[in-house]
């Protein structure tokens, strides 16, 4: 695995370039976190500026959930081969079927979850999977219940489809975030769809089996459904253990639609091939009868990427998790030193950190303040639900040198503010 060239070498050209394992140059932003590094952007080739780095000049992109660490060599090779062969057509059925097989095999190897391959279905992406679920497998008119904080599109997507959304804030107890099961039961009292996220974005927590068992009872009692977004399941740190919600009981299996993908673990969200897993017999029957999402709707390169990721790239994934892990620990240390009043639980999964800045007297949109004053672009907590206006989500999937500079800069911007009155 290639290492990053020290930041100082790049300072001359005022950019940090991530030499990924493929030797490809991905533009990952300028190093101008300090005044000594000027504004360089006009000299750059912008072709390889990723979405995360589409930020103002001299700002660090720490917002959208993509990583600066590229993808696995086997994925890159498979994509090159496909392009060289002109394999850029509609998605052939045999390729879709192979991706579905490799997904099922990965779920079995990694999580001991035995899913019949015919229950795995390609869809363009996980958010599209949520739309498919709401349009086809959820009673019309019922609300969507979202434990918060949450991934922002869990709130916006159902609303765009005309669904009422009920936010149920999770509670902090014993150093963990826990679902408010009573609140969820009240919100689901007339039936509805609960959107679960496990491992959790933005909290970085991995759900414990006992909590899932209690949740399944609530969902079952209220005759509701679950959409279980498990897109982050490949990125779990040692010590935590991902258990697919639908695998916890037959009752859970029958009320759940699970979504997963290679897009986070292997950093290929642009390829568009997520997987829906239909453990409910009724859902599966409807899917087949109505041809709900024809298999050629996925992307051919997405399916090729998913096959190579699931089948050939476990070692790369584990090495990359170790890289994230080092950053996770570095971030804890950096926040302790540079932002001592920020509150943060080290995540058990994902490369996202959910940071409580309520101890600082900040303007109403802290991420905006930090972008302006620290030149670090994070995600606004308010997007994750009502009550999280003083939080930000920080993506730490970046070179450690850059992470260090970013948090030092955040620390300076925070230190320039008074502490909030308690
Ligand atoms: C929890 C969660 N679900 C879904 C997505 C988006 O996935 P997709 O691009 O497959 O829609 C993300 C991306 O950050 C995410 O964090």
Automatic annotation (TrEMBL):
Keywords: Aminotransferase, Lyase, Pyridoxal phosphate, Transferase
Pfam family, one: Aminotran_1_2
GO molecular function: cysteine-S-conjugate beta-lyase activity; pyridoxal phosphate binding; transaminase activity
Entry EC number(s): 4.4.1.13
Cofactor(s) of this protein: pyridoxal 5'-phosphate
Family matches, as InterPro entries: Aminotransferase_I/II_large (IPR004839), Class-II_PLP-Dep_Aminotrans (IPR051798), PyrdxlP-dep_Trfase (IPR015424), PyrdxlP-dep_Trfase_major (IPR015421), PyrdxlP-dep_Trfase_small (IPR015422)
Top EC group: lyase
The keyword Cell inner membrane is annotated on this UniProt entry: no
Span of domain Aminotransferase class I/classII large: 68-410
The keyword Transferase belongs to this UniProt entry's keyword annotation: yes
Similarity-based family: Belongs to the class-II pyridoxal-phosphate-dependent aminotransferase family. MalY/PatB cystathionine beta-lyase subfamily.
Protein name per the record: cysteine-S-conjugate beta-lyase
Species, as recorded: Microbacterium allomyrinae
């Amino acid at each position: 695995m290639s290492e990053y060239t020290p930041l100082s070498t790049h300072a001359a050209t005022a950019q940090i370039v991530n030499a990924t394992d493929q030797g490809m140059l991905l533009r990952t932003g300028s190093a101008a976190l300090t005044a000594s590094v000027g504004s360089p952007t006009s000299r750059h080739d912008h072709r390889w500026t990723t979405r995360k780095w589409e930020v103002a000049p001299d700002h660090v992109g720490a917002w959208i959930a993509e990583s600066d660490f590229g993808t696995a060599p086997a994925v890159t090779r498979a994509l090159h081969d496909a392009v060289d062969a002109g394999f850029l057509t509609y998605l052939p059925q045999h390729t879709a079927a192979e991706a579905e097989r490799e997904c099922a095999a990965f779920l079995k190897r990694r999580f001991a979850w035995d899913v019949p391959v015919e229950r795995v279905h390609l869809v363009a992406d996980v958010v599209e999977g949520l739309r498919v679920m709401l349009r086809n497998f959820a009673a019309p008119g019922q609300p969507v219940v979202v434990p918060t904080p949450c991934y922002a599109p869990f709130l916006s997507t159902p609303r765009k489809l005309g669904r009422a959304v009920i936010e149920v804030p999770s509670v902090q107890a014993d150093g963990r975030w826990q679902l408010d099961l009573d609140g969820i039961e009240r919100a689901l009292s007339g039936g509805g769809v609960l959107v679960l996220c496990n491992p959790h974005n933005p909290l970085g927590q991995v759900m414990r089996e006992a909590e899932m068992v209690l949740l399944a009872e609530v969902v079952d009692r209220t005759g509701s459904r679950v959409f279980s977004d498990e897109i982050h399941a490949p990125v779990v740190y040692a010590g935590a253990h991902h258990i697919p919600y639908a695998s916890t009981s037959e009752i859970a299996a029958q009320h759940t639609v699970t979504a997963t993908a290679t897009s986070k673990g292997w950093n290929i969200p642009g390829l568009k091939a997520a997987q829906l897993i239909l453990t409910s017999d009724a859902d599966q029957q409807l899917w087949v009868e109505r041809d709900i999402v024809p298999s050629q709707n996925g992307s051919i390169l997405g399916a090729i990427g998913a096959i190579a990721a699931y089948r050939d790239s476990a070692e790369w994934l584990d090495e990359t998790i170790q890289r994230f892990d080092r950053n996770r620990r570095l971030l804890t240390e950096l926040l302790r030193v540079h932002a001592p009043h920020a509150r943060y639980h080290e995540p058990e999964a994902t490369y996202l950190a959910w940071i409580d800045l309520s101890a600082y007297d900040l303007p109403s949109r802290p991420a905006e303040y930090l972008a302006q004053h620290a030149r670090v672009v994070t995600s606004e907590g308010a997007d994750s639900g009502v009550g999280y206006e003083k939080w930000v989500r920080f993506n730490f999937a970046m070179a450690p040198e850059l992470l260090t500079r970013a948090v030092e800069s955040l620390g300076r911007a925070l230190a320039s503010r008074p502490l909030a009155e308690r």
